[in-house]
Amino acid sequence: MESAENREKVFRALQEALTEDKSRTNILKISELGLVEMTRKRTHEDLVRYLTEPCSYCEGRGYHKSRRTVCFEIFREVEKEAISNTKNIVVFASPNVVNRMTTKKEACGLFGKNIQQADHH
Fold first, then answer.
1. What is the structure's pLDDT at 68?
2. Is pLDDT above 80 for 39?
3. For residue 31, is pLDDT > 70?
4. Closest CA to 44 of 26, 72, 28, 22
5. Smallest Cα–Cα separation from 91: which of 52, 65, 117, 121?
6. Cα 29 to Cα 12: distance, rounded to the nearest angstrom
7. Is residue 110 very low, low, confident or very high in pLDDT (cuts 50, 70, 90)?
């Protein structure tokens, strides 16, 4: 873009378009080469952090799926099996996941039948 006037028009149009953006945005003027430098502040939590929990074994340097994520994965698989008229479905999961499945309202809504929890020591 050779004309400074045209660069300014594009810059103002970009600023105007970004007024509807929920993220805080910082835009620098368009350079002589026609480049725009722009930064945006994230407003939502990183998806990986939302779907996982810090690993207690490695003191938070790694992640594993959260109990909530594992529960929903199990719910989806159970629903698939239920559609195929499977009479009994056995789920093996860690005690923390089983506890979440049997105590949260999510489980009650997704499973119309009783969840029977077997004690295996």
1. 85
2. yes
3. yes
4. 22
5. 117
6. 10
7. low
Look at residues 45, 48, 80 and name the one whose alpha carbon lies nearest to residue 66: 48
For residue 104, what are the CA distances in angstroms to 49, 67, 81, 96, 110? 21, 11, 21, 12, 11
- φ/ψ of 37, rounded to 5, equals -105, 130
Quote the radius of gyration of the chain (alpha carbons, Å). Answer: 25
- The predicted pLDDT at position 104 comes to 65
Alpha-carbon distance 89 to 77, whole Å? 10
Task: Give the residue among 27, 31, 32 at the shortest CA–CA distance from 13.
Answer: 27
Q: Phi then psi for 54, rounded to 5 degrees?
A: -60, 145
**Cα–Cα distance for residue pair 8/34, rounded to 1 Å:** 11
Can you tell me the mean pLDDT for 16-27?
A: 84
**What's the average model confidence in pLDDT over 91-113?**
71
Q: What is the spatial distance between Cα 11 and Cα 102, in angstroms, rounded to a whole number?
A: 55
Would you say the pTM of this structure is higher than 0.90?
no
Phi-psi region of 108 (alpha: psi -120 to 50; beta: other; left: phi over 0): alpha
